[in-house]
Amino acid sequence: MTVGQGSAGVHAPPAGTQGAAGITYTTVDDTYFEARRLKRYARVWSLWALGVGAVISGHYSGWNLGLSQGFGSMFFATIIIAIMYLGLTFSLAEMSPALPHTGGAYSFARTSMGPWAGYITGIAENIEFVLTPAVIVFFIGSYLTGIFGTDPSFQPVYWIVCYALFVGLNVIGVELSFKVTVTVTVLALACLAVFYLSVIFSGKFDFSRWALNMGPGGVELPNGGGPFLPFGVAGIFATLPFAVWLFLAIEQLPLAAEESHDPQRDMPKGIIAGILTLIVSAFLVIFLNTGIEAGAVGYAKSTEPLLDGFRALFGSDIAKILAAVAVIGLIASFHTIIFAYGRQIYSLSRAGYFPAFLSVTHGTRKSPHVALIAGAVLGLAVMIITWFSFGADAGGAAIGGTLLNMAVAGAMLAYFMQGMSYIVLKKKFAFLHRPYTSPFGIAGAAICMIIAAVTLYFQLTDPVFRAGVIGVVIYYAIMMAYFLLWGRHKLILSPEEEFALTKGESEYKSH
Q1: Which of 145, 217, 237, 286 is most buried, judging by how many CB atoms fall within 10 Å of its CB?
Q2: How much is the pLDDT for 287?
Q3: Has keyword Membrane (predicted)?
């Protein structure tokens, strides 16, 4: 079954005329949307896997850098960020079935606050979804270098092979894409479950000795027993950006709305099941991983905390086998976020915000192959330019640090805009049919906005994070200039645009 969009609804402004805020709509006929069809496949299980799989690599590595401020700081920061994501995901669970379009965050902002807000939100997510898989494939390359014993300079070859393989799987079609997503997500969670059970039954877990082995100022305490907050309350705020990595990208689920059989029923279930799964795993990993040998001080410096945890439990003799297992989590997130950037670029292109050719779908597979390839080329280009500009060592640090922080900065801006979209939709579009209503309501969205803004502020206080934010500002300047000079005159009445212009009176057309 394929889905698409016909000609503009009768309530919409005539295409080819000047709209609000200096926007011009270009006339297209049904053949435009005929070349941009998607295929419905996903149900609750697939949506749950898509959300969890996108995030799960953050439970393997990345989060642990927050331990540099002590276990207590990481613990409280995770609570705060989990609250932010609960506010976000329950808001999405309400908005997504009410506006079941592939545009996701862009669609919500476009409907509630207009095309400029939609574009600003879309660019924020574009930064997040294009750069996050680039960072993940860097870590995959690092693991493969250790497994196969290749020279570090060989890593770009691993990146290219991984992109080619998983973009190819996404291009083949949504059925295969979701089957792979479910498989690798379940395997990644199984690997984590084995680790959690191994820690619990190993007899090597000692919370006071290891998790509290950091004293004031970050000094290591040989016998543990240190303070819960060695850097005080300030350490909690400094740790917020690292706790984000435990949940980053679950918000991509609404992008699968037009490929879900029943988004009104399945999307809320998939989103809520996903965030609850991730919250349980997040607290298990920070508690159990930190409570074994190496502790907060050791794991704060690790590039592979889960693998180092397995080594502490079982020794180094099986390190390569464990590394191969650990790659599963990275692959799960890499594959699923490729899906996300493909749909995100597709939706903005279909509506004319990006060049329209990017939204053409495969003739038989009905996958957005042009968008998938374009996102891969962009992500690879940024990585390779960074790698060869700084050299292997410094380039790796820039990819794992600055690019990661650019993704987090883009995410925080997108979360702020989505919280605002929810509040405006509640007030101005109260008449919309909402198959699901968030129990947290406007308060949950407002709390999400506040925590996202605070997290972004603390990114700016760290020099490494600040470089990422500056990169986001530069990208925004380029993309806003494009929209001001060209893009705003090329918009098209896609499902999101027609829904917004008719105040929800037009119905999404399926064929």
Answers
A1: 286
A2: 98
A3: yes
First-residue to last-residue Cα distance in the chain: 8
pLDDT tens digits for range 295-304: 999 999 987 8
Range 389-395 contact pairs with CB under 8 angstroms and sequence separation of 24 or more: 392/152, 392/153, 392/155
DSSP at 22: G
39, β-bridge pairs:
2
Range of the domain at 154: 2-501
Q: Which residue has the tokens 């709209």?
A: 19
499-508 pLDDT, tens digit per residue, is 888 877 654 4
| CATH number of the domain to which 304 belongs | 1.20.1740.10
Compare 475 and 143 and report the one with higher pLDDT: 475
**Does the residue 237 lie in any domain?**
yes
38 beta partners: 3
- Rounded distance, CA 483 to CA 199, Å? 52
pTM of the model: 0.92
**Is residue 51 within 8 Å of residue 247, measured between CB atoms?**
no
Q: Does any domain span residue 60?
A: yes
Please answer whether residues 97 and 441 qualify as being in contact, where contact means their C-beta atoms are separated by less than 8 angstroms: no
- The first and second tokens of residue 397, run together, are 């640090």
Instruction: State whether residue 322 is helix, strand or coil.
Output: helix
Contacts of 44 (CB under 8 A, 6+ apart): 266, 269, 270, 273
Place of tokens 């699901």: 436
Domain for residue 61, yes or no?
Answer: yes
pLDDT at 505: 67
Residue 192: how many CA atoms within 13 Å on its side-chain side?
A: 29
Q: Is residue 280 part of a domain?
A: yes
φ/ψ of residue 248, rounded to 5: -60, 125
Among the listed residues 437, 474, 434, 20, the one whose alpha carbon sits nearest the alpha carbon of residue 264: 434
Count: domains in the chain: 1
| CB-based contact 362:34 (threshold 8 Å) | no
Alpha helical stretches, state H, 391-460? 392-398, 404-428, 441-460
Instruction: Name residues whose C-beta falls within 8 Å of residue 443's C-beta, 6 or more positions apart in sequence.
Output: none
Using DSSP's 3-state secondary structure scheme, residue 38 falls into strand
